[in-house]
Amino acid sequence: MMKDKQQASVKSAARALDIIEQVSRCGSATAREISRATGIPESSLSYLLTTLVSRNWLLPGADRAYVIGPALARLASGDPPTLAERRAAILRAITRATGETSSLFIRRGNDVEVVDVELSAHPLRFTPQKGMRVPLHSFASGKALLAALPPDERDECLTTMPRARFTPYTLVDEKSLREDLKRTADRGYALSREEHTIGVMGIGVALDRQYSLSVAIPSPRFDHPTERRIAGEIVRIVDEMHGWGPERG
Q: Domain HTH iclR-type, which positions (predicted)?
């Protein structure tokens, strides 16, 4: 079984290289043209093209054709990855390590806004959209940011911001929320237990006072060992992959 998986991975890697080489030779090529030239069935080609586009190796061009993307030029020139590429790489690494949807958020006043998302391959998954905004107190990413604030700024937020109740589990009482934020600071990550959406558990980590990351796990796949494992993976990957955003170079 392990050998079969390794062979499949090698085959996918070879096909991805075939696609890039074919588009590079032609300047641009449609999926049908790529399929005919490489012998890759169109049914298999769709996933590979989507992956290559998501990583900027290819870009969609005119008339449903694909052209070489900026990732190849950057690699050839030795230029460092862009900010967007660094952030996307961290999300990909977290989702690959945890198997769950990961998202990057930015604070917008009393809300957090989704900046980027890497979706889980599971059919049952949470699918936040870029640009979606939710209140700080209801999401793991928001609570992680609240816990990371200086005490005086956190006090101002807690005493002035509205705290809508989205589910029976949303923490709207100031005392309960303060206790939860203290636990967040002590353990190094925030938890949202169906506090915004029934059936969705969240684990969030603040990157600084503006940005945070979170992983969303459907409640049937969530338990204490899963919580510890995913929180550990988030912290490990963020520590290993420096330069995620403006404050880290």
A: 10-70
Domain covering 83-241 in this structure, CATH number = 3.30.450.40
Q: Give the C-alpha distances (Å, rounded to integers) separating 36 from 16, 61, 173, 221.
A: 15, 19, 62, 42
Q: Helix 174-187 crosses helix 140-148 at what angle (to 10 degrees)?
A: 80
1 pLDDT tier (thresholds 50, 70, 90):
very low
Question: pLDDT tier at 241 (50, 70, 90 boundaries)?
Answer: low
Q: Encoding tokens for residue 178?
A: 């303060």
Calculate the CA 170 to chain-centre distance: 23
Residues 6+ apart with CB under 8 A from 88: 54, 55, 116, 118
Q: What is the mean pLDDT of the chain?
A: 88
pTM for the complete prediction?
0.71
243: tokens are 């330069």
